[in-house]
Specification:
Layout: H1 6-11, H2 25-28, H3 34-39, E1 48-50, H4 59-75, E2 78-82, H5 88-102, H6 106-110, E3 123-126, E4 140-147, H7 164-189, H8 196-200, H9 203-206, E5 208-216, E6 228-231, E7 237-242, E8 248-252, E9 255-258, E10 266-270, H10 272-277, E11 287-289, E12 297-305, E13 312-313, E14 331-332, H11 333-339
Parallel strand pairs: 1-2
Antiparallel strand pairs: 2-10, 3-4, 4-5, 5-12, 6-11, 7-10, 7-12, 8-9, 8-11, 13-14
């Protein structure tokens, strides 16, 4: 069976969504109105980290920034980054180009279709029902490697809009620099030499950046569907841009917390890879994406991933103590994905029962 593009379904004028997109009963209790939830200031809020002081000559300011970033990575594993050094104009170019691709006629986008059945995951696609719940997700996407240049296939990148390739290449290059800064700060936060985490995830040569543009069409029954189901990222770090439409939720202390839309920020997740290397000191948080009936939501996620088989991921010796034995077995990145080590269900995540948010 060919899964129809969600965009085509959404534009067909249907009033009820196909049953394959309806979430299980126990999950529906926690799905609310994303706009109301984003406006609420009740309860815990996703931290915002100002990176301006990261390169400061003022050691006190620099240390304060280090501590804030480390604490956010330990408590939340996700944060808004502001003053991150990536020009707003470049971020806008990336967003305009990505949106432009999804505004192409369906037959044009299909020229870039991937073929998941043969393992060709790069290109234009929609989620198949091979995920944990067996349900479909209310999104289409475009997925491809963006850095380093020698590990990208420019032949599969969209040729329209014409700025897609130059904007995405420049953004990926600058994001790689930001990733190094973050990895350095997280290394110091563990009491390690600043280059250590960078080296452990593959260094400049082997750390691969993969971009997934998530396109969430308007949904006639958003209270029944999810754009992306609850998961943790397998990456070392994930950086996310979005079009200022809310949707991201994090499971924090047993409740779903909605991320605010912070202008000119980049959302950063700590992924499973860093959680393993830090022996759980840094957190890879369970998160999901909600949809709505009023506005299309688009996000640009860049996953920074170690090489599949070159490196064995396991807690670093400096993070293991008699009172804190290794929490994760040694595995390559490929084995980690295969074993789905972090397929945390909502009911057993951190041994906390999920409370409706």
């Amino acid at each position: 069976m060919i899964t129809p593009r969600v965009e085509i379904l959404a534009r067909s004028g249907l009033k009820t969504i196909p049953k394959d997109y309806v979430r299980p009963e126990e999950e529906l209790k926690s799905i609310g109105d994303i706009f109301l939830e984003e406006q609420s200031n009740d309860g815990p809020q996703l931290p915002t980290i100002d990176l301006a002081a990261l390169d400061s000559a003022d050691e006190e300011q620099q240390m304060k920034c280090h501590v804030e970033l480390r604490n956010a990575a330990m408590e939340w594993g996700v944060m808004h980054l502001v003053n991150h050094g990536i020009p707003v104009e470049l971020m806008e170019r990336v967003k305009i180009a990505g949106r432009g691709f999804f505004e192409l006629p369906p037959e044009e986008k299909e020229k870039y279709a991937n073929d998941q059945a043969t393992g060709n995951v790069q290109g234009y696609g929609s989620k198949l029902a091979n995920n944990e719940s067996g349900q479909l997700e209310w999104e289409d996407y475009f997925f491809h490697s963006v850095f380093p240049p020698d590990k990208t296939e420019l032949s599969i990148w969209p040729t329209s809009p014409p700025d897609y390739t130059p904007a995405t290449m420049e953004y990926a290059k600058q994001l790689r620099g930001l990733a190094s800064k973050i990895l350095s700060t997280l290394s110091i936060g563990l009491g390690l030499e600043k280059e250590r985490l960078e080296k452990e995830v593959g260094g400049m040569e082997d750390l691969i950046l993969q971009m997934k543009i998530n396109y969430y069409p308007k949904c006639p029954q958003p209270e029944l569907a999810l754009g992306v189901e609850a998961h943790t990222d397998v990456s070392a770090l994930t950086f996310i841009l979005h079009n200022m439409v809310p949707g991201l939720q994090l499971l924090y202390e047993g409740k779903w917390v909605t991320a605010k839309c912070v202008p000119n920020s980049i959302i950063m997740h700590v992924g499973d890879t860093i959680e393993v290397l830090s022996n759980g000191k840094y957190k890879s948080i369970l998160h999901r994406g909600l949809v709505n009936k009023e506005k299309v939501r688009i996000s640009w996620a860049v996953f920074c991933e170690p090489p599949k088989d070159k490196i064995v991921l396991q807690p670093l010796p400096e993070t293991v103590f008699e009172a804190e034995p290794p929490r994760f077995p040694p595995r390559t990145f490929a084995q980690h994905i295969k074993h789905k080590l972090f397929r945390k269900t909502e009911d057993d995540h951190d041994h906390q029962k999920l409370k409706p948010s």
